[in-house]
Design goal:
This protein is an all-alpha fold and about 110 residues long. About 65% of the residues lie in helices and about 0% in strands. The chain contains 4 helices and no strands. Helix 1 runs antiparallel to helix 2 and helix 2 packs antiparallel against helix 4.
Length: about 110
Amino acid sequence: MTTKNPLLLLAYATIAGLWVGSQLIDIHYVVHLMLLVTAILYAACHMSLTMREEQALARGEKPDDDDDDAEKKDDDKKEGDEDTEEEDIGPPQYETLRTQDAMQFPLLGSCSL
């Protein structure tokens, strides 16, 4: 999944710029630390979300495009045969990071530093 996320590109440029720039000019350590950590956390969280989507697709899950389709399927299932109450046994469930948690992680990580 290749994206043209400008913030992700900025994060990569910040990481590379700080690593090279700190060898050439004197950068205050607090500024260097905060910029580097924030850029690394943003890039890592973005990659985590990308990997989460890829793993879900590999397990056979379909992307959540519309919630209306899921509601329609639930209604159809309720109106179907009530005598057969078999549960579908699918692939094992894996614990993954929710999107909201991944978006909050850079903020909490930066504040904790």
